[in-house]
Every structure is written in C-alpha cells, then in structure tokens.
Amino acid sequence: MAAVASRIAGVKGLADAGIAMVPGEYRRDSDPRQCVEIEEIPVIDLSDVEKCSPARILAIDSIRSASRDWGFFQIVGHGFPEELMASMMELVHDFFRLPIEDRSVYYSEDSSSKFRMGTSFIPSKETRRMWQDFLHQACYPPCEIAQLPTKPPSYVKISTAYAEAMNRLSKRVLGLFSESLGLESGALEEAFGGERHTMRMNYYPPCPEPELTIGLDAHADPNGFTILQQDTRVKDGLQILHCGAWVPIKPLPGAFVVNIGDQLQILSNDVYKSVEHRVVVNSERTRVSIASFYGPAEDSHIAPMAQLVTDDAPACFKESAYGKYLQSFYASKLDGKAAIKTVRY
Known about the structure:
Number of strands: 14
Number of helices: 9
Radius of gyration: 20 Å
Shape: globular
Strand content: 15-25%
C-alpha cells in the first residue's frame, strides 16, 4: 500500500516534501554521450501555406530537409491562438497545485485509459523511475466529458478547446508532410485510415539533484508525429540525439516543436526517421510541456507507402497493426528505438 501511495503522490509529492536527496529508485547512471550546444533546429514559417504560393513551396521544401536531416523542427506562423497556448500551460500548473486528494482519483497505470494521471512511465514495472508526473487525455476519439476533471473549474473548457485547435493544426501538418514526400496532400491521411490523437501534459517539478536522474528516458515516439508546446519560462529540458550527441532544443516563444514518429518513418519507407529524445530536469523551477501525439487509427495496418517503394528502394518494414504496436510500446520500458526494430525487415 505504501508503494502505491508513493506512486500516486508522484514526484510532486517528493518536491512538496522538500527532500534534499534524490531517492534511490530515481537515481541512474549518466549517459556517456555528450551534450553539445550547436545550431538551433530548423524553424519553419507556416504563414500563407494554405495558398499555392512561394511561401507554401518554401515551407514544404523546409519540412523535407528538416525531416531528413533532423527529424525535428519548430513551426511559427501556425495560426494557433497564443492565448489558448498560455491558458493550457497555466491549466496544467493549476491541476498539479490541487490537493493530492483531488488529484489522486484520476491516478491509473492503465495505458488504455481515456484520461488519467500518472508518474514516470510504468512505475510498477520499473527498477528506475523518471522525475515526472503527467496527465494523459484522449482527444480523438475523445474522452467523455464525465471522464475529465471538474477541478480546476476551467479544465473541460480549456482542454477541449486546445484539443480541437491542435487537431486542426495536426491535419494541416500531415498534409504538408505528405506533399514533402512528393505525394498528394491527402495521401498520408488516407494511409492513416482514421486518426488517434492524444495529449500528454508533462509536469517536472524542481529536483534537488537533477544530474542524478532524468525527466524522461531516451525514446522515439511510436505515433505518426508529435507537436510539442514547450515551457518558455524554463531554458533547459528537451534534448534530441543528433550525430551521436544530445542537443538541447531551446523554447521559442509562440512556436511548437514537431518531430517525426515511428509510423511516419514506416510510411515514408525510411526517408524520414523518428529520432531519440529525452528530457532533463533542473533544481530551480517547475517545467511543464504539452505533447500532442497524432497518428493512425488503432485498427489501421501500417506499411511503407506503395509510391515510395521501388526496385532501388525496397520496403524496409513489414506491415504492422498500429494498435498492437502501441500496446507493445506501452507494455515495456522506454528504450531508444527498440520498438521500430521489431517491424524492420
């Protein structure tokens, strides 16, 4: 019972208790790969991309090169309401400010739950935990309103508005990805066979010994692609693996970070690749991020697009059921790009 209570309280409970040392279950060996400060990842302006214009051509070309060279880029000029971005960020802070009694009713380790609060990744199966708590929310297909928190009072209104606006942006980005691969704008949407869109709201409180733990282990996302809102009040957090070194992704006001997921790597037949990333924590202030995961319908079967398979570029991956792919991913620990290796020829 004590172990379950500890998981429910999460790292927020540890931070609130004012601990001076990181507990043993959060300590881990350091990563031998160095962290380097190099040039920023590409920033792509989506202003005027709805028109058949030089701006659209430039954006598509930029997405193509960024996806091949980095697997990550930032977007600006996306049209997402900045006040909604700010409100959603504050909403996550407000939820985790609630008393544990109000938050604990949402705690679950069932990855199939439409809405849940959690900590680490799968704490009951982990020998080493991660310094993070989170909220998971299904967006499309959506949660029932009754499944969402009644506290803070604005939770339903803000989170559903954010999910709807993000869904619209995700569909636009999917079309641009499709064109960047030389396909019709609706080709990837058709290949997705529907949509699965979820949000994960990550909460990283201050850590007394941040160098001894990790906020999120190195992994590649299993979905199609991810759109991330970073916390502009905290400089360090997200890092990506590029050319064998960890590269910090500095938050850019008003921007979203976009990254390739495993399903887009499969559909593109290895033209684009998902990229390992991790999150580090700090000792000074809480960091929040909001990750929106967009991908195929769970009952879809995913394989390389026929248009991208040739004699010179044979299929690199076996067809796989996306729902089973997700189940496998969430049933094991985060482990780099281990998941996609299971479907590679």
